[in-house]
Structure formats: C-alpha cells, structure tokens
Amino acid sequence: MTRKTAFVTGAGKVTGKAIALKFAEAGYDVGITYVKSAEGAADAVGRIERGGGRARAYMADTRDIARMREVFDDFYKTFGRLDALVNNAGITRFQPFLEADEETYDDVFGTNLKGTFFTSQAAARIMKERGGGGGVIINISSLHARGTWPGDAMYATTKAALNRLTEAMALDLAESGIRVVCVAPGYISTGWESHPKTVDKCDEIKRRIPLKRFADAGEIGGICVFLASGKAAYITGSTLYVEGGALLPVITENKYV
C-alpha cells in the first residue's frame, strides 16, 4: 500500500515538530524544513524513522522561492507524491506602530505571507501536475487575525491575510482537487509558560481563557491530520480557531473585557 506524504515547514521547533510527528503517527512519510533549529529537525526525523516511517529534513528559508522549489522537487523524487502541506513557518514580532521599522516589517511579511504564498504555489503545482490530482494545504494562522493586542500591527495583519488567502486559494485550486484550510491557534505550551520571567504573565493569561489552559502542540498537530484526512473531505476555504475560547467576550463584574 502506498504511504501518503506530508510536508511541514518550520518544523524544527515545538509546534512544527509536533505537527510533523502527528502526521507520522497517522502513517505519513514526512518532509520538514528548518532554518536555525537543525538539532530539533534532526530529532524529529530520528523519531519518525524509529517509529517505522520515512522522513527528510531540509534547511530552507521559505522566503527563498527558488530554494523551496528545489526542496519540493527533491521531496517528490524521493517519496513519489505530495499529499499534504502545512505552512507552519512564521515569525512573531511585536513593535508599537510608531516604532515599527522596515527591516522587521520585511521579515514578518516575507515569512508569514510571501513565504506561505509561494511555498503553497510550488506544492500545489506538484499536487496537480505530478501527484495525480488532489491534496490538502493547511495554513497556520493565529488568534491575532481576529483579536487585537498592543504592538501586533505587522504580525496580526499577516495572519488576517492568511485567512483571506486561504479562501482565495481554495477557490482557485478546487478544480484541481486541492483543498485549502486554515488553523488559527491561540496560546500554545512551548515552554515559555514555565519560565521564571514569564510564569506570572502566563498565569494571568490562563485566567482569561475560558478553558483555563494553553493548547498542547500535539493538539494542533492532531487537528491538522484530521483536516488532511478523508473525514474532512468537504471542508475547504475555512479557518478553524483553536484557542480555548480566548476570543470569546468574557464578562467580569458585569463588564465585557
């Protein structure tokens, strides 16, 4: 039986690695990219291979369009198909609007939007032309696409744009049998919530989340696997918020906050 494949960008760190591992657990062979997290990427590949799957890691910045095309060409030659792409690579930067600089703007928009746009294009071409038709592209957005926090003008704009890009891609790619969906996580446990410098802040945030906790990265991975599966075959163009109710209006002392 031919194994399906999934490709996850930015999978050297907690969330991307968890997504890649969940696909491997579901029986996929997996490709991943990383930029600085070589050790994390190697760990992900090792864990997948020890579990009986196949995996390959590529050092690649999604802003480098030519490089990403090379990566997908090599991945297809190695595994013979491309069934799912998860655009997880992203940069989180916060600056007050009046202090925002061009370099940070280019980094955030280049990775979060341009990188996702052209990485998706490269993957979709393979899905259509060489993959036998069909496939799933999953964009990773954020609750910042809807909520507003100080200093998030650049980051939030890119994530809101990803939600809209998902809709446009879904319409354009439907005739090729390619579904496009978006996952917008809230706060995720990545280790920062237990750091002495941030633990108090994290406790305060949790009190404002109706479910009173952060998401486990594996939960985000499990949702991505579900959306890539046949059980979600009629879902395209949608954004799923996975934020524990953090965007719900919370009434405190008869006031909305």
Descriptive report:
This protein is of the alpha/beta class. It has one domain (5-190, 216-256): Rossmann fold, CATH 3.40.50.720. The chain contains 7 helices and 11 strands. The chain has helices at 14-25, 38-50, 65-79, 102-129, 153-173, 199-208, 217-228; strands at 5-8, 29-34, 55-59, 84-87, 135-140, 178-185, 188-189, 215-216, 239-242, 251-252, 255-256. The strands form 3 sheets. It has a 7-stranded parallel β-sheet, with helices on both faces. The chain has a two-stranded parallel sheet with strand order 7-8. Strands 10-11 form a two-stranded antiparallel ribbon. Helix 4 links the parallel strand 4 and strand 5. The longest helix has 28 residues, at 102-129.
Q: Return the CATH topology.
A: Rossmann fold
Instruction: Determine the strand fraction and express it as a percent band.
Output: 15-25%
Number of domains: 1
* Structural class category: alpha/beta
> Which homologous superfamily in CATH is the superfamily?
NAD(P)-binding Rossmann-like Domain
Helix content: 40-55%
* Straight-line distance between termini: 53 Å
Shape field: globular
Number of strands: 11
Q: Name the average pLDDT.
A: 93
According to CATH, what is the class?
A: Alpha Beta
| Order of the strands making up the biggest sheet | 3-2-1-4-5-6-9
* Helix-strand topology string: EHEHEHEHEHEEHEHEEE
The gyration radius over C-alpha positions equals 18 Å
The biggest sheet amounts to: 7 strands, parallel
**CATH A-level architecture:** 3-Layer(aba) Sandwich
Query: Treating each run of at least 4 consecutive H or I residues as one helix, how many helices?
Result: 7
Report low-confidence residues grouped into runs of 5 or more. none
